[in-house]
User: What shape does this take?
Amino acid sequence: VLAARVRGYNTDINCFSSWSERIFTLGPSHFYDPEYFCDYPPLYMLMLWVVAALRRLLGIATGTSAYLVLLKLLPILADLAGAVLVWRVARRKLSESGAALLCLMMAFNPAAIANSAAWGQIDAVLALFIALCALYAADGRTIPALVCFSAALLVKPQALLVGPVGLTAILCGIFCAQGEARKRRIRDALI
Assistant: This one.
């Protein structure tokens, strides 16, 4: 309801709408052009291509409330996926009801709802990839962590802000490991 009633940050909503239609019309290989403003990396543009495809498939007109919901759907889904991720991780240490409570707190976090559903910002998509990256790294799974970090970087360049932390974690993992585990972590880091 909030996503349909609150337009959101006008500049970004206009950009996302314009980029979505442009990438659908021109295709990914012709989207970026020196004469056309777009300051986002390609992965989110590909996600917006899906938004435009769904809009056309469902016959939703631009400028409508339904279109606004569709445009904000990616970050809303990322917020919900983040809540499920919190639940899955919390189940390892907490009771089922404790994990469910954390999941609900995440899903109904007023700041997240305001940011994604009302304001139309895509920070939740970035945050989801960064959270997955951190979880994989904590489990010593360097390659999936780096894939998630790369995806985060291809969504928003702000992912670079956590790059030094990730690099430090990888190096600590290498230096703290011994024997075959160290060799595997070095190999994974070099890939």
User: Anything to note?
Assistant: The CA atoms of residues 11 and 17 lie 10 Å apart.
